Amino acid sequence: MKKAISLILALVLALALCACSAGALRPSAPATDISEAPDGVTVDDPDAEPAPTLPYSGEVVLYSSMQEDQLQAVKEGFEAAYPGITMTYQFGSTSAIEKQIFSEADAGQVNADVIWVGDAVDYVAIKQRGILQKYSSPEAAGLDPAYVDADGYYTAARLVGVGIAYNTLTVPAKDAPKSWEDLLDPRWAGQIVMSDPGAAGTTKYWMNAMMCSDQYGAGYMQQLRDNGCVLESGTTATHHQLASQVYQVGVCVDYVTAGLAADGSPVAFLYPENTVTVASPIGLVANCANVDNAKLLYDFILSKKGQEILVAHNLVSVRRDVEQSVDLSSIPSYLSCDFARLAAEGDANLAEFNRIFGLD
């Protein structure tokens, strides 16, 4: 389902870029010349052109909460664009990656060069801890200014929609819930699944946005809990449980559902009224070990080529010049979010959610 679309988010973000100090790219070491063959015959030619050397070398390390197939695709694309640089990544839930980042920061240095987790609210704490540096990527020039942090520490690199998914073997399309209120229908009692917001960054953002909304708030979460909504440990588990018919409907993520459907799983996704959209930023780590390569990776992710790789894996691009693969034309409306309120009330909202679901 491929349709060009211009995505204008009602979501308010204060995003930016993180920079490491400037420096020249490290040339790879020249190959060692072999001047004599085993039989004593000289094989090198002093007049011959020197063997070409790769203009880039070394490695770059990315910490991310994306799906591994998406990270692998980024790795392959980046290494093809910059032969000589090896990209390694560590992936996990947003909460797990954040815990590792903060633990490494306490020990003296984060081992990643680039961080790509959660949403802009997550980056407030990362930024305040001094973990990020400013970086003005040339690829950010064409992005909507709303995607670029005013202070220059991080930038949105992908867009995620949180909506409703259902198992197509047990729920006819005509009967699938079309709004957040529909999930409160007794017919779905005990058949609703969602990820634990304490572990999954996108669900945490959805929970926070809903809790900050006067239309929903904590009262909605209590009703959802009363209707038997079950929490899974993470995004992957939630979607696989739905695909396995353990549950019939769920609060899910568009790109994960689309990936499972493409692989033959009996799941479908719909964007409800007041769809919650999440802009997931990237940032460069302060004093990172591979500063120049980190900038190259940062730029590549934001580039048209990098964004096309994401689109090919069911993500929504932040660029207007990239044709989307996820059909957003059916979104009836977006939930308006006050970013300052999300940042200020996020911890309290998570604590209240945990109390409602018996996790405190």
CATH architecture of the largest domain: 3-Layer(aba) Sandwich
Number of domains: 2
Radius of gyration: 23 Å
Summarize model confidence as the mean pLDDT.
86
Please mark out the parts with pLDDT under 50 across 5 or more consecutive residues, or reply none.
Answer: 1-44
What portion of residues belong to β-strands? 15-25%
The CATH class of the largest domain turns out to be: Alpha Beta
Query: What structural class should be given to the helix and strand makeup?
Result: alpha/beta
Tell me the number of strands: 10
| Largest sheet data | 10 strands, mixed
Q: In sequence order, what are the helices and strands, one letter per element?
A: EHEHEHEEEHHEHEHEEHHH
The amount of helix comes to 25-40%
CATH topology of the largest domain: D-Maltodextrin-Binding Protein, domain 2
Assembly state of the chains shown: single chain
- Kindly report the name of the CATH homologous superfamily of the largest domain: Periplasmic binding protein-like II
N-end to C-end Cα span: 42 Å
Count of alpha/pi helices: 10
General form: globular
Descriptive account of the structure:
With 360 residues, this protein is an alpha/beta fold. It folds into two domains: 58-158 and 278-311, Periplasmic binding protein-like II (D-Maltodextrin-Binding Protein, domain 2), CATH 3.40.190.10; 160-276 and 336-354, 3-Layer(aba) Sandwich (D-Maltodextrin-Binding Protein, domain 2), CATH 3.40.190. The protein contains ten helices and ten strands. It has helices at 68-81, 94-107, 120-128, 201-212, 217-226, 235-243, 254-262, 291-302, 304-311, 339-356, and strands spanning 58-64, 85-91, 114-116, 132-133, 155-167, 192-195, 230-232, 249-253, 267-270, 276-285. Strands 1, 2, 3, 4, 5, 6, 7, 8, 9 and 10 form a ten-stranded mixed β-sheet that branches. Mean pLDDT is 86; it is low at 1-44.
